[in-house]
C-alpha cells in the first residue's frame, strides 16, 4: 500500500491526468498520529509534498519517504503593486531594510537585532499578519533546515533569502546566487549576511530576483505536478 501525505492540492490535481493512481491519502496534521495510522496499516511509502520536518520524523520511524517541493499558484509569482508594498512598510525608515524572521522559536532574536539597523517581522505562516508582513520584507531569514511553504512563498514574492544551509534547501537555492546559505547555528555568519543586505538595497533586489526565478522553476504547480506523476508512475512499476 502506498500512502501519500498530505494529498495533492487542487491546483496540482488539475495538472494530472484522470488515471493518476492516488491510492490512499492521509490528511492527518499530527506526525505522531500519521505514524500510528501507517503502522496499523503496514504502509510502505509515505509521501509529503511540503513538509521536510514531518518527513524527517517519518524517516526516523523507519518509513520510506519522498519529498516534492511545495506548489504555488500562478499569482504567487506576481510582483506586488508598489502602493501595496509602501503601505505594508508603514513605520519603517526609507533607508532601513526590513527582515522577516522565520523560525520555530526566537532564541536568536536578541542576537540578530544587535548592531543590525533593521525592522524585524516575526508573524507566523498562519497568522492574519502574514501577508502584510511578507509584503513589507526585503529579506526573508529562514532558520529551518527543511523546505517550507513559507520559504516557497517568500522567494516567489521576490524576497532575498538567507537560510540555514542543508541539502534540502540547496536543492532549490544556489548559495551566493539565489540565497545566502549559512551553517546551522553560526550566529556570526547570520549576522554578517544580514549586515550585507542591510547595507545594500541593490544586493537585496538582485538576490530577490534570483530567488524568484528559483521559485518559479521549482515551486510552480505545473512543474510540481510533473514530479507527482513521475512518482506515481514509478510506484505503479514497482
What's the CATH topology name of the largest domain? Rossmann fold
Name the CATH homologous superfamily of the largest domain: Glycogen Phosphorylase B
Report the end-to-end length measured between terminal Cα atoms: 11 Å
Number of strands: 9
- Overall CATH architecture of the largest domain: 3-Layer(aba) Sandwich
Total domain units:
2
Order of strands in the sheet with the most strands? 6-5-7-8-9
Radius of gyration from the CA trace?
A: 19 Å
**Could you describe the largest sheet, including whether it forms a barrel?**
5 strands, parallel
Class by alpha and beta content:
alpha/beta
Number of helical elements: 11
Shape: elongated
Q: Return the CATH class of the largest domain.
A: Alpha Beta
Report mean pLDDT, rounded to a whole number: 76
Which band does the percent of strand residues land in?
A: 5-15%
Uncertain spans: 21-25, 107-115
Order of helices and strands: EHEHEHEHEHEHEHEHEHHH
Amino acid at each position: 500500500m502506498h500512502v501519500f501525505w498530505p494529498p495533492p492540492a487542487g491546483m496540482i490535481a488539475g495538472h494530472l491526468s484522470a488515471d493518476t493512481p492516488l491510492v490512499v491519502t492521509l490528511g492527518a496534521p499530527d506526525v505522531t498520529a500519521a505514524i500510528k495510522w501507517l503502522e496499523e496499516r503496514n504502509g510502505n511509502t509515505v509521501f509529503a509534498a511540503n513538509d521536510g520536518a514531518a518527513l524527517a520524523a517519518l524517516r526516523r520511524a523507519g518509513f520510506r519517504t519522498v519529498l516534492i517541493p511545495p506548489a504555488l499558484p500562478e499569482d504567487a509569482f506576481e510582483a506586488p503593486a508598489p502602493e501595496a508594498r509602501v503601505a505594508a512598510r508603514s513605520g519603517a525608515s526609507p533607508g532601513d531594510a526590513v527582515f522577516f524572521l522565520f523560525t520555530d522559536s526566537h532564541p536568536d532574536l536578541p542576537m540578530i537585532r544587535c548592531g543590525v539597523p533593521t525592522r524585524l517581522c516575526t508573524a507566523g505562516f498562519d497568522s492574519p499578519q502574514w501577508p502584510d508582513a511578507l509584503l513589507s520584507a526585503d529579506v526573508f531569514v529562514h532558520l529551518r533546515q527543511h523546505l517550507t511553504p513559507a520559504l516557497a512563498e517568500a522567494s516567489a514574492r521576490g524576497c532575498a533569502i538567507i537560510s540555514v544551509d542543508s541539502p534540502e534547501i540547496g536543492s532549490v537555492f544556489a548559495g551566493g546566487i539565489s540565497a545566502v546559505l549559512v551553517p546551522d547555528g553560526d550566529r556570526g555568519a547570520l549576522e554578517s549576511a544580514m549586515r550585507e543586505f542591510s547595507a545594500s538595497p541593490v544586493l537585496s533586489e538582485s538576490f530577490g530576483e534570483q530567488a524568484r526565478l528559483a521559485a518559479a522553476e521549482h515551486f510552480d504547480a505545473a512543474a510540481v505536478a510533473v514530479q507527482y506523476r513521475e512518482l506515481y508512475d514509478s510506484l505503479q512499476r514497482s
